[in-house]
Amino acid sequence: MELATARAEVASLRESAQERISAYEEESARLDELTGRRESAESRADAAERRHEGTRLGAARQAAGAYKGVDLSLMRAWIDPEGPTRALERGSYLTLFGEHRSADLARARASRVASDTLAETARTAEREQAEATEAAEDAREAAEAAITAQEERSERLLDQQTRLEKAMAAAPATGKEARTAGPPEREAPEGCAEKGGSADVENGRVPQTLLCPLPQAGERLRADAATAFVALDRDFRSEFGRPMCVTDSYRPYHEQVRLFQEMLPGMAARPGTSAHGLGLAVDLCGGVNELDAPEHRWMLDHAPEHGWHNPEWARDGFEPWHWEFTP
Questions:
Q1: Cα angle at 108 between 107 and 109, to 5 degrees?
Q2: Residue 194 burial (CB < 10 Å; 0-12/13-18/19+)?
Q3: What was the pLDDT predicted at 320?
Q4: Which of 313, 307, 309 has its CA nearest to residue 323?
Q5: CA 122, CA 32: separation in Å to the nearest integer?
Q6: What are the tens digits of pLDDT across the range 160-187?
């Protein structure tokens, strides 16, 4: 059970890690994009700065030239070799150029402000994205570390399971002598005397004509298994003053599918392979399901006399509640 749980946790962690790896890759891609946008914005800001500086210097040179090299007085206009009209025209051009320079300067300043704002916004977004990328990277590393730890735990449990299986294989089978002596005479449940056991049935689709009810309401088994179980139940009642507690018996195919999908890996047989699907297994409660309970110990000692066994793979706490009939 612990090994199955560990394996399920590994599968879950792998799925979580994959999601975090994908998130990290997405954040990294966004960071690269924002870095490019920030660098582009800073480049535009630098270009705006150069335009602003060039415009400012041009305006300064124009102002200096006007003050030093151009005389727009009326006297200068009359004595100018080109005549007053040409001098006045030159003054008008200077005035017009000055207005253009002022407009260029204003535009350059506005461009610089916009570029600075864009660059700062890009830098802020890049910082935030860098933090998100770092968080995604931390989550990815944590997920991978958890997977490694859980896989190591699974390996240790698998080694332990292997040692247990070898030990069980070397141990003598409980109740072997009782089985070789043959089962005692049994009384068939009511209505089951004419029914027999048959191995020629499809797992999970045993005909109703081959199933018999147990003393426990709603539970059914194949006729020969039911007959043996009734005899075992009678002995159990004599010992403990109450009938055996049954949680599950014959399991149709659709129920096997449902359990296989709902249970942790390794906790339910693959549909079509369960002993329950042949009407030859029961899951018990009322103390039999507890490894060291008197009821469980009594069953280990006396159930084989009636052909019922807790299989070797289910021993030592794996599934103390699971019992199978050996015809």
A1: 90
A2: exposed
A3: 93
A4: 309
A5: 12
A6: 766 765 666 566 544 433 333 444 455 5
**pLDDT category of residue 141 using cuts at 50, 70 and 90:** confident
| Res 193 pLDDT > 50 | no
Look up residue 6 and give its two tokens. 């560990």
Whether 220 contacts 279, CB under 8 Å: yes
Number of H helices, E strands in the chain: 7, 6
Q: What mean pLDDT value characterizes the chain? A: 74
Q: What is the Cα–Cα distance from 279 to 212, expressed in whole angstroms?
A: 9
Q: Is 230 within 8 Å of 186 (Cβ atoms)?
A: yes
% of the chain residues with pLDDT over 90: 25
How far, in Å, are 66, 77, 91, 192, 301 from residue 85 at the CA level?
Answer: 18, 7, 10, 134, 133
- Distances, alpha carbon 201 to alpha carbons 209, 225, 280, 324, in Å: 12, 15, 12, 17
- Which pair of tokens denotes residue 217? 């309401």
Cβ atoms 220, 214 nearer than 8 A: yes
Q: How confident is the model at residue 214 (pLDDT cuts 50, 70, 90)?
A: very high
Residue with tokens 């612990």: 2
Quick one: which of 196, 201, 214 has its CA closest to 278?
Answer: 201
Reported as a single tens digit per residue, the pLDDT across 224-260 is: 999 999 999 999 999 999 999 999 999 999 888 888 8
β-strands 308-309, 220-222 pairing: unpaired
Give 191's contacts (C-beta < 8 A, 6+ positions apart): 212, 213
Q: Give 81's contacts (C-beta < 8 A, 6+ positions apart).
A: none
